[in-house]
Amino acid sequence: MSRFRPAMGWLHNWMGLLLGWLLFAIFVTGSFGYYRHEVTLFMTPELRPLAAATVSQEEASRRAVTWLSANAAKAESWSILLPDEKSPAIRVSWDGETTGEQLLDPRSGAPLDPAPRATGGGDFLYRLHSDLHFVSPMVGRILVTFIGVALLVLLVTGLVTHRNILRNLLRFRPGKGWRTRLDLHNLAGVLGLPFHLFVTLTGLVTVMMLIQPWGVASVYGASGLGAFAQDSFPSVRAQPPRHATAPATLDLAPLIGRAKHMLRSDTAGEIDIEKPGVPGMRVSIAHPIRGIVQFRKPSITFDPIDGTVLGTTNNDLSSVSLMHSQLFGLHVAHFAGPVMRFVLFCLGLVGAAMVATGHLLWAAKRWPKADAKVPHSIAAVDRLNAAVFAGLPLAIATYLWSNRLIPADLAGRAAEEQTAMFAAWGVALVVACIAPARLVWTLLLAAGGLAAAALGGLDLAGQWPVWLIDLILLTGGLALLAAAIRSFRVLPIPPRA
Fold first, then answer.
1. DSSP annotation string for 480-495
2. Which residues in 438-459 are b (16+ Cβ under 10 Å) and which e?
3. Which keywords describe this protein according to UniProt (predicted)?
4. CA distances (Å), origin 13, targets 173, 200, 344, 363, 414
5. Any residues with CB less than 8 A from the CB of 195 and at least 6 apart, and which?
6. How far apart are CA 346 and CA 367, in angstroms?
7. For each of the chain's 497 residues, which pLDDT tens digit applies?
8. What is the DSSP letter of 315?
């Protein structure tokens, strides 16, 4: 036992050092994933006036069908997303000889004019959390999965290493160099431990087959994950309609009412229409993604002529499949209301703080006394810490600013927004490498704080602000500015107390 704790401490320190920078980015972008729809609305100001529209789902569905009948009558299938508090426009798409998608004004049923700008919105930050970037999504997801496993190891070894972690949980010693960072690290790690375990385990369950495919491979062979998914989450084949004709005019309102009653929801989710306007036509209405824990939404398929139920999907999952779907739903938290999502967002940032303070603690404990020369390895870690922990907020603020500055009608502007973000992060790395050590943290924190606070303030002065995102930007910007002022008063890492 005398050797066990030091071994766990060594593993905790070095694994945390090597993976912490990427873990920080995963925590921060994952936290914004809880508000990805709000971020998307923030980045599409053309949609904001629609938020004040009060159009029922039944009326919105009529306008969507009218537009599709006039513009995509020969399509093999239609899909309709009705407006809600996260997406105020009607989104219609069609598939067949041609495919397409269009956003409609729910007040008139006409295409939005001006058309909303193309943007990655909050979905880009969400995908960055799960799929990384500059690698294929599958490779990125596998890497994030292994990092999730490493995070579990870090959490367990951290508890083993800090033997007095519970006794000193609320102990805080300001101005004590590495001891101050140890107290902050303990506080962020232990207070957020239930969340850290919960979000890590639920995330790993959703992608467990990526790192443990042997059981599926031994049973399904060449059919692989596709056949396994079909057996685990079977798509119920709906019965064909009993009528040999299609309705002359499709009215979705009665079907929406029945679906809401049967799904026990006050709103309807995605509507899919097979073979619109021809015999064999069927209408499937899904439960909205919010309001349920499970990730796979139940849906009901109707005969559009008399409303007969032809089939259901995801209503009768096995116990194991339902548990998997619910764990996935717990991870992405679509079920969460405003208060719960805010709590989860804050806990995600606590996880990022845990990682950052751990890195600062590692360097602070090895920082020499004031009259000694700083080893190159310690100085390099400190500069990388500044590039990641102060550079990522600047990069995200740049991503949001680029949405305002890049012309709305520019082709490929969504990719340009992403390029601007990573370019800003690259500049932060260059500044961290060449700027005087005393000024590195101050420069990067001040730049990120000014960018975030200015953007939030300007948006609040607009006609249709996205209040929550604006307040996050303002609060985060002011916090970064306060940290920049604090960093200017002290050395990059104070000597050990």
1. HHHHHHHHHHS-SSPP
2. eebbbbbbbbbbbbbbebbeeb
3. Membrane, Transmembrane, Transmembrane helix
4. 22, 19, 27, 11, 39
5. 344, 347, 348, 350, 351
6. 31
7. 568 888 888 888 889 999 999 999 999 999 999 999 999 999 999 998 887 778 899 999 999 999 999 999 899 999 999 998 778 999 999 998 889 999 999 999 999 988 899 999 999 999 999 999 988 988 999 999 999 999 999 999 988 887 776 666 667 776 666 677 777 788 888 888 899 999 999 999 888 887 788 887 888 876 677 777 777 776 666 677 777 777 878 999 999 999 999 998 989 999 999 999 888 899 999 999 887 888 888 999 999 988 889 888 887 788 888 888 889 999 999 888 889 999 999 999 999 999 999 888 888 777 766 556 777 788 889 899 999 999 999 999 999 999 999 999 898 999 999 999 999 999 999 999 999 877 899 999 999 999 999 999 988 877 778 889 999 999 999 999 999 998 876 654 444 43
8. S
Surface-to-core class of residue 407, CB atoms within 10 Å of its CB (0-12 exposed, 13-18 middle, 19+ buried): exposed
* CA atoms of 315 and 473, how far apart (whole Å): 41
What is the DSSP annotation of 157-193?
HHHHH-TTTTTTTT---TT-THHHHHHHHHHHHHHTH
Task: Return the half-sphere exposure (C-beta side, CA atoms, 13 A cut-off) of residue 290.
Answer: 14
Q: Report CA 118 to chain centroid distance, whole Å.
A: 19
